Amino acid sequence: MAAHAFDAAMALQPLGDGRFAGATSPAYANMVGPFGGVTAATALNAVLQHPALLGEPLALTVNYAAALADGPFEVVARPARTNRSTQHWVVEIVQAGETVLTATAVTAARRETWSVDELAAPDMPTPEAVGKPNMAALVEWVRRYDIRITEGAIPIAWDGSGDASRTTLWMREEPSRALDFCGLAAMADVFYPRVWLRRATRVPAGTVSMTVYFHAGSVQMSAVGTGWLKGQASAQAFRNGFFDQPAQVWSEGGQLLATTHQIVYFKE
Amino acid sequence: MAAHAFDAAMALQPLGDGRFAGATSPAYANMVGPFGGVTAATALNAVLQHPALLGEPLALTVNYAAALADGPFEVVARPARTNRSTQHWVVEIVQAGETVLTATAVTAARRETWSVDELAAPDMPTPEAVGKPNMAALVEWVRRYDIRITEGAIPIAWDGSGDASRTTLWMREEPSRALDFCGLAAMADVFYPRVWLRRATRVPAGTVSMTVYFHAGSVQMSAVGTGWLKGQASAQAFRNGFFDQPAQVWSEGGQLLATTHQIVYFKE
Fold first, then answer.
1. Which of A73, A75, A223, B71 is the least crowded, having the fewest Cβ atoms under 10 Å away?
2. Do A99 and B81 touch (CB under 8 A)?
């Protein structure tokens, strides 16, 4: 059985000493370089493949230093500190001798504690009611997801009429793939640029830095399996060429799986 | 004139090659080790003091790998990638040969663009109406700020009665100090643990990772000067020993200066 395109895209060959060889995948091509979500997942994958790993991902921050060129790259993952129940990672992706991504990650042991979700998932019509994917596939990676926007779709008319930046949607990988940390890290980045929606104006934009907090562990992800995920994203401020984007991802049943934030460059 | 306690606390002596010597300050002592905000500011200060710096802080992520011991430490800042208008930094704080903090930062040139604040500041009574600081100084660093909570104060009775996690407050440094990137980074961390409020139960808690996005540049910070700042924080999920905390900081006039997020360990 052929590997899922996502697993192939983030596949790494260990080179020893925390170094791994990878390569960009045409299946996840973006406007320039690969979809940032799959690059984030690849950085995390180096941590997950590292022989010194303890615990499961809790926090991941990736900084996109440059667009990856199509072709091979190297990922370097280093456990900077290992505690009893947390481990701190520094990761870098290097291509042709130049750093193209810096990252940090925290892995941790999850324990049974008092727990509550404070932020409820938005009410949305079912994926079936929304129907077939309605996010235009402007770039190749979008075809790797079944994304059904329920609010805040990509504007049809670029007429400067926007007045809010919130998008809510259903999503899952296409073809389906059981949820895991890398898949969830990538899906934190599926939202198209908030500035397009807020201004109804299409300007060049690209993520500079993204952080993902994993509230779900592997047990909760297994329970989600290939089910639908609910996503929500909006911006808080657009200023001097950058905007932020807090976002949330819930299971179909309404359990908050991950919260994420990014800061995004935009032109003009 | 003596330096402000904050400037003294984050002061660094250059050792060459991006290495800087610093030391913890009793003025910012927390329960264990120093206030995390001042440690974050110190990491950022190494970037700001670095001779290769281009641009101004845009994003900062700090991961608290271990509590700092009282005494000296070394900060190492490395520009991993320098582009035309952004620069990517990897920072580490080392104490007695062990990594106690990992961090990444992005600095960038700010340009005039279309701008709008989407998230409005909460309506709050004036700082004068709220009156003297009402955040109990359980630890020394709290005395370095004038914090006036307008909603979601630290519970008076630890009776398990909590049902929401939102705190809104006024804050400024005490004595007053003109706003800058390091001061703002530190104030992103002033909110007491959300789990105390949500559960009205005081359990051990500590920040694991914090990210700050700076929407204000140095020009806007100069305009704020020593003025009051509005802050707001809440949690989205508490699960398996960790909760997250998105927060925002506005000027008194309602301009969004920074948005920030953290993931926090809690016991039980």
1. B71
2. yes
Residue A138 lies in a domain: yes
Q: Which of B240, B245, B248, B259 to mutate to test the interface with A (most CBs of A within 10 A)?
A: B240
Residue B256 placed within a domain: yes
- Structural domain boundaries, residue A26: 5-109+128-266
Distance from CA of A167 to the nearest CA of B (A): 14
Which pTM was predicted? 0.98
> What CATH number should be reported for the domain holding residue B190?
2.40.160.210
Partners of A116 on chain B (C-beta within 8 Å) are 198, 237-238
Instruction: State the pairing for strand pair A242-251/A167-173.
Output: unpaired
The answer to whether the CB atoms of A102 and B92 lie below 8 A apart is no
Inter-chain CB proximity B106 and A237 less than 8 Å: no
The single residue listed with the structure tokens 């899952």 is A172
Tens-digit pLDDT profile for residues B91-127: 999 999 999 999 999 999 999 999 999 999 999 999 9
Closest residue by Cα to residue A99 from A136, A73, A77, A130: A73
Q: Count of domains in chain A?
A: 1
Is the ipTM here above 0.95? yes
Q: Cβ separation of A113 and B241 shorter than 8 Å?
A: yes
Q: Is the sign of the CA dihedral B193, B195, B196, B201 positive or negative?
A: negative
Smallest Cβ–Cβ distance between A98 and the set B81, B99, B211 belongs to B81
Does any domain span residue B123? Answer: no
Torsion sign, CA atoms A247, A252, A255, A258: negative
The string of DSSP letters for B7-66 reads HHHT--EEEETTEEEEE--GGGB-SSSB-HHHHHHHHHHHHHH-TT--SEEEEEEEEE-S
Residues with Cβ < 8 Å from A259, sequence gap 6 or more? A119, A212, A213, A215, A246, A247, A248, A249, B236, B237, B244, B246, B261
Q: A136 lies in a domain?
A: yes
Across the interface, do B58 and A116 touch by the CB < 8 Å criterion? no
* DSSP string covering A21-71: EEE--GGGB-SSSB-HHHHHHHHHHHHHH-TT--SEEEEEEEEE-SPPPSS
